[in-house]
Amino acid sequence: MTVTDAEVLSTAVTAALRTIDTNLAAFGDRYPGDTTVQGRYRLRPATGDVPEGGNVGWTTSFWPGMLWLAWDLSGADVYRRAAEAHTASFADRVHNGVDLDTHDLGFLYTLSCIVPWQRSGRSPARTAALAAADHLLSRVLEPAGIIQAWGDLTDPRQRGRTIIDSLMNTPLLFWASRTTGDPRYANAARRHTAQLRDHILRPDDTTFHTFYWDPETGEPLRGETEQGNSDDSCWARGQAWGIYGFALNYRYTGDVSFLRAAQRCAGYFLKHLPADRIAYWDLEFGDGSGEERDSSAAAIAVCGLLELATQSGVGTYRAAAGDILQSLINGYATAPGSTASDSTAPDSTAAGSTALLLHGVYDKPKGVGVDEGNLWGDYFYLEALARVTLPDWTDPW
Predict the structure, then answer these.
(1) Which is it for the CA torsion 187, 162, 138, 33, positive or negative?
(2) Chain-centroid distance, C-alpha 141
(3) Structural domain contains residue 394
């Protein structure tokens, strides 16, 4: 498929919007869990003082993010109104200090607050996003200059650790510098990205999931995995974050080494795809391994490859993105009547699923969300559809 195959794409968009309609009726301004359970999203479990369906965890913003995309793709005001209704929850979350000990503030506040600020100019969304950027800046650990990924900054297990996903969180900091004129945010983002370029990206073009620095001296220590098959394997979703994240950081900085890092991640990812072009959950696995695919890694990679094509001018990235997106539409999306075009694709007949994409993997080593839909996979699949169907569309990153 080319990414201009209008009929195929229109059918895919229509099917995705139907699924979003189902979820909007079920959840409204509440939040679904990270992944489906037996094919269906349920309300996010209660935790601490946060009730069932509350705004906690790192994935909640993908739900309003999808609603904004649905508005872009359809023009229907029902989606805009539903998306705007979430801004207050994220403002309350950051101002009340609810579950903020994470680098994923970039995911959380880019989609929930920067987007409505850009669309409507409403100051509470801007104020909340800047508060989140300030909190993210407080997670920079000197002298290494990295943004700690998880946990309280005094947690000895987490101190000095960052992860490849963090490349998608730096746009919040670049936005904050552009909005306020304060260069501290952008400087921290650029330094952090340079550290990941030099240490989380290996000489063979694979990536570590996580990497540790000595928090006192700044010395780089070791790479590990949390969700990959082993410390030395190549976790598929992490490699996809590398494609997209390094490309975005190049967009903001013009640092050609970041563009090269994105190209290195893309080259390895594309060389290690199976016959139907949808990655297994770790790139060391291939057809015949009996392991699960991760459709969310594929969706992220599509967006990253399209961004990389724009930034580099290399058309083969766009063609590769089109091939992967075609396979997602044919064999992994919950479009009514879709059929797998390749015999190696998993069965796509998940009757009644409320995910946009089937066959995702959250955390295989821990047995979490294996062969299920997930919010980030759904979001980036819909973002991919927006990228290829709306010529003048501007992504939120």
Answers:
(1) positive
(2) 24
(3) no
pLDDT in tens, 343-384: 455 654 456 899 999 999 999 999 999 999 999 999 999 999
Alpha carbons 258 and 240: distance in angstroms, whole number: 15
> Is the CA virtual torsion 300, 303, 306, 310 positive or negative?
negative
Buried b (16+ CB within 10 A) or exposed e, 21-53: eebbeebebbbbbbbbeebbbbebeeeeebeeb
Tokens of 164: 């490849």
Confirm if 297 and 239 have CB atoms less than 8 A apart: yes
Residue 352 lies in a domain: yes
- Which CATH number characterizes residue 279's domain? 1.50.10.10
Residue 1, in any domain of the structure: no
Upper half-sphere CA count for residue 13 (Cβ side, 13 Å): 22
End-to-end CA distance of the chain: 26
Point out the residues that are catalytic.
104, 165
Decide: 395 and 387 in contact? Cβ < 8 Å: yes
3-state DSSP helix/strand/coil % of the chain, to nearest 5? 50, 10, 40
DSSP count for the chain of H helices, then E strands: 14, 7
Q: Dump the DSSP string for 52-67.
A: TT-S-SS-TTHHHHHH
Task: Compute CA distances 16 → 38, 375, 385, 392, whole Å.
Answer: 19, 13, 10, 21
Confirm if 150 and 101 have CB atoms less than 8 A apart.
yes
pTM tops 0.90: yes
pLDDT tens track for 3-26 = 658 899 999 999 999 999 999 999
**Alpha-carbon span 44 to 95, nearest angstrom:** 21
